[in-house]
Design goal:
There is one protein chain. It contains ten helices and 14 strands. By secondary structure, it is an alpha+beta fold. Strands 2-1-5-3-4 form a five-stranded mixed β-sheet, with helices on both faces. Strands 12-11-13-14 form a four-stranded mixed β-sheet, with helices on both faces. The protein has a three-stranded antiparallel β-sheet with strand order 6-7-10, with no helix packed on it. Strand 13 and strand 14 form a beta hairpin. The longest helix has 16 residues. It is globular.
Length: about 325
């Protein structure tokens, strides 16, 4: 493999030819902050947070600027830090800063960067804001564009990873927003409810329709809660967490049955001729195993609970994530 050598903050770094400055820096464990960057999926330099300074004083976005042999790069000069701080302040000026009530508070990449860069006056550039609406049409999530900074990570995973492409940038200039074609709600599109846009959103612009409080009540009442989890969900926790860990965590918290769905790509969830227990059996690969239909609520949710406990459906993504981390925190 042909390589190049460059200096980053005075440190000589060897990187494969064709690498970007960001890739070269990460090889040397030199941290450069990013917001919009997703490797091989969303490399567009939109957020301008990954800015670095070349020896000639020019500021460039490291996620798209190619590293060259003999190049000298600086990632933390006063000029760079001032530029990043102003970028974050400008993003915050068009951002709904209801952080205390936001589902991502404490786990928000924008919030973390503002803290790291010493942003004390988040309203420094306040002025007109882009008109926005909250889209609640989807059964599984809420989209709030007042918290969106147009990083386009959700757009990239929907199109490039899932191959669905139901969301994208609408309008132009200051009026640009992320939405569906013709202003349709997400629930009116061919969205497959995979949740990848939610997982990759670095802020609270896309959030789950959580029913964690109903779940907590049902667990305390001793309900036989059946959870079906897609393998993709387990992958969010990193390479060291396996389906076995998730199952053990949820069962210790009181879930009656926890099973991995291995056939979700072939399940006809929109087939009106199939009852919920039949869809669940297909998902879990347990057709003919005697899963009693009269104990399962007639709902198309992915977490099912007996009707006798008065709860029809719960959201597995929010419920199992919170449950897992609560358990992890007790150990």
């Amino acid at each position: 493999m042909e390589t190049i050598k460059l200096k980053i903050n005075g440190i000589e770094v060897t990187a494969p030819k064709g690498s970007t400055i960001l890739e070269a820096a990460r090889l040397a464990h030199i941290e450069i902050p990013t917001l919009c960057f997703l490797k091989e999926i969303n490399e567009i330099g939109a957020c301008r947070v990954c800015i670095v300074e070349l020896k000639n004083g020019k500021l460039v976005t490291s996620c798209v600027y190619p590293a060259e042999d003999g190049m000298e790069v600086f990632t933390n000069t006063p000029k760079v830090m001032d530029s990043r701080k102003k970028t974050i302040q400008l993003l915050l000026s068009n951002h709904n800063r209801s952080c205390l009530s936001c589902v991502r508070s404490g786990h928000c990449e924008l919030q973390e960067l503002a803290r790291e860069l010493g942003v004390e006056d988040e309203g420094y550039y306040d002025g007109e804001t882009t008109p926005s609406e909250i889209d609640t049409s989807a059964a599984h999530m809420i989209r709030d564009n007042s918290k969106c900074i147009l990083c386009r990570r959700c757009v990239a995973v929907c199109s490039e990873v899932q191959g669905i492409g139901v969301i994208g940038a609408n309008n132009r200039g200051f009026a640009t927003e992320i939405g569906s074609a013709f202003g349709m709600g997400l629930g009116e599109t061919s969205c497959v409810s995979c949740g990848q846009c939610l997982v990759n959103c670095p802020f609270g612009a896309i959030s789950d329709k959580s029913q964690i409080f109903q779940l907590g009540r049902a667990l305390k009442e001793g309900g036989e809660i059946i959870a079906e989890i897609a393998p993709a969900f387990v992958g969010q926790f990193g390479p060291n967490i396996t389906p076995r860990h998730i199952k053990a965590a949820l069962q210790e918290l009181g879930f009656y049955t926890v099973a991995m769905a291995l056939k979700e790509d072939s399940v006809p969830m929109d087939d009106p001729s199939l009852k919920t227990h039949e869809k669940l059996a297909i998902l879990l690969g347990t057709e003919g195993d005697g899963l009693a239909s009269d104990t399962i609520a007639e709902t198309d949710a992915t977490v099912l609970i007996p009707m006798t406990h008065g709860v029809d459906s719960l959201n597995v993504a929010a419920a199992s994530a919170v449950a897992f981390w609560e358990l992890a925190g007790r150990r």
